[in-house]
């Protein structure tokens, strides 16, 4: 391997496939109306999110980036701090 080269493979999955899996799982939890709202917020056509139901869904990197920015962040650390 070339020094300084990161293959992007972790545990047998590329970072891109991990991202697709994460985004797809999030989208599939949303109802139709919410998917439409997410598509608008991400400046995507609603068909892009409708196709996420397919195991062959192959979004562009720019689409993944836009959708990842909209996934709600987990607030475990903040909740743990409140419990202390």
Which key terms come to mind for this protein?
disordered N terminus, single chain, 84 residues, globular, mainly alpha
Explain what you see.
Helix content is 56%, strand content 5%. The chain has 84 residues and is mainly alpha-helical. The protein has a two-stranded antiparallel sheet. Helix 1 (15-28) packs across helix 4. The radius of gyration is 16 Å and the shape is globular. It starts with 8 loop residues before the first strand and ends with a helix. The model is unreliable at 1-7 (pLDDT under 50).
- The Cα radius of gyration reads 16 Å
Going across the biggest sheet, name each strand in turn: 1-2
Percent range of helical residues: 55-70%
Shape: globular
Report the structural category.
Answer: mainly alpha
Portion of residues in beta strands equals: under 5%
SS summary, helix count: 5
Amino- and carboxy-terminal Cα gap: 46 Å
Q: What's the number of extended β-strand segments?
A: 2
Largest sheet: 2 strands, antiparallel
Low-confidence stretches at least 5 residues in length (pLDDT < 50)?
A: 1-7
In short:
With 84 residues, the protein is mainly alpha-helical. It contains 5 helices and 2 strands. The longest helix is centred in the first third of the chain and has 14 residues.
Task: Annotate the secondary structure layout.
Elements: E1 9-10, E2 13-14, H1 15-28, H2 32-41, H3 46-50, H4 61-70, H5 76-83
Antiparallel strand pairs: 1-2
Helix pairs in contact: 1-4
């Amino acid at each position: 391997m070339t020094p300084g080269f990161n293959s992007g493979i972790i545990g047998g999955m590329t970072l891109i496939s991990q991202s697709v899996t994460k985004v797809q799982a999030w989208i599939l939890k949303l109802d139709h109306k919410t998917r439409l709202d997410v598509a608008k917020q991400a400046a995507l056509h609603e068909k892009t999110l409708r196709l996420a139901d397919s195991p062959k869904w192959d979004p562009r990197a720019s689409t993944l980036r836009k959708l990842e920015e909209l996934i709600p962040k987990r607030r475990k650390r903040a909740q743990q701090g409140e419990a202390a």
